[in-house]
Amino acid sequence: MVLERDWVGARASMVLAFLVGVVSVVTGIANITVTIDAPDFVLFGVTLPGYVQQVAAFTGTLTGFVLLVTAFGLRKRLRAGWYATMLLFPVTAAQGALQSNEQSLPLIGLSAVAFVVVGLNFRAFDRELELTTTQLAALAALAGAQAYGTVGAFALREHFDGVRNLLDAFYFSLVTGSTVGYGDITPNSAVGELFALSVLLVTVSSFAVVLGVVFTPLIEAQLSKALGRMTEEQLDLLENHVLVLGYGDLTEPILEELSPKSDVLILTDNEERTRRLTERGYTVLTADPSDEESQRRARVASARAVVVATNNDAEDALAILTARQLNPEVTIVAAATQRENVNKLKRAGADTVISPAALGAHFLAESALGGEGVEELERRLLAEEPSKDGGAQDVLEDEDDENGGDGD
């Protein structure tokens, strides 16, 4: 089950979409020059003109760049990104087939594999595309500016050299707004010059606004990282991880054991502790461990296990109740500070509850009364990997046999 989730999870889907995009771009660029003046060719029994290969190579490059954008949407687990990606995979495969050479075979095969993998992972992309008012306004301003430049240039085409149709007018508007200015379309009258100035002001301003809206979240993400806070993009990629709720005396040794074996996310409301753990390379989310929304953000629904081991059994019980409610199938293990709270934490929803104080006291008492093999038992429990059949219980039973015990 773990292997399956690793290979068909959201992360694998994002990587595959990115790879298909890159391969599509590389294949298209490689075939643009190769297919110049290409002869007619036969594909699936249909004779096609040679220029189709060049068109497929050119459009394949553009499709690849669009796929790179949709891969970013998959990273944010957007349902719209999933639909767009699934729509583009058949397009890239068809473009690869139309380019009709050995260089396009990897693109066709990878598109087919990615289509299956991403399609199987439909449920992982459950977030709706939500645009802020600022983003909507920026996009509307850009669209309006381009529409103004295109329609105006076409209506005033007699005042421009080089504008003959709507495509020329759109080309003029886009080139002007991007400040490229090739100089192939120029005004030939005062009216054309005044209109060109207005297009320059409107379109350049709209481009600047859109770029600001795009780069602001990136800057915020870097600031969040510096402050030891996880970004939404990082949280979106979490799956099959171990969620540690809260911080206590046992957290450090727990992290040392878990970190080499699994992705771990620590949920704590102590900002100073967050900063220190982040500096040491741990992944931390600053939030209330028992809060339902905090656990949702920590993606408890896709976690492989939940560990609760603070010094407050009451708060631990509340965190366990919340985790069990949000993910009835997840494995929850807890440490009870007070021995009498073991059953209470189990009733709250924990699968396994251990009392470190009681366990340590038992070992110390056995040693004080002359019991042998306690240190050896501890060493074997900490150093040896549990067996598939018996786990740590086999170690305990073996120790009892060596000491002549009955295993109770």
UniProtKB/TrEMBL annotation:
Residues 239-355 form the RCK N-terminal domain. GO terms for biological process: monoatomic ion transmembrane transport; potassium ion transport. Residues 383-408 are annotated as: Disordered. It is a multi-pass membrane protein. SUPFAM superfamilies: NAD(P)-binding Rossmann-fold domains, Voltage-gated potassium channels. It comes from the Archaea. InterPro entries: K_chnl_dom, NAD(P)-bd_dom_sf, RCK_N, Trk_Ktr_HKT_K-transport. GO terms for cellular component: plasma membrane. Pfam families: Ion_trans_2 (PF07885), TrkA_N (PF02254). It is found in: Cell membrane. The keyword Membrane applies. Its main location: membrane. The chain crosses the membrane at residues 12-34, 54-74, 81-98, 104-124, 194-219. Residues 395-408 have a biased composition (Acidic residues). Keywords: Ion channel, Ion transport, Membrane, Transmembrane, Transmembrane helix, Transport. PANTHER family: POTASSIUM CHANNEL PROTEIN 2-RELATED-RELATED (PTHR43833), POTASSIUM CHANNEL PROTEIN YUGO-RELATED (PTHR43833:SF9). This is Voltage-gated potassium channel. It comes from Halogeometricum rufum.
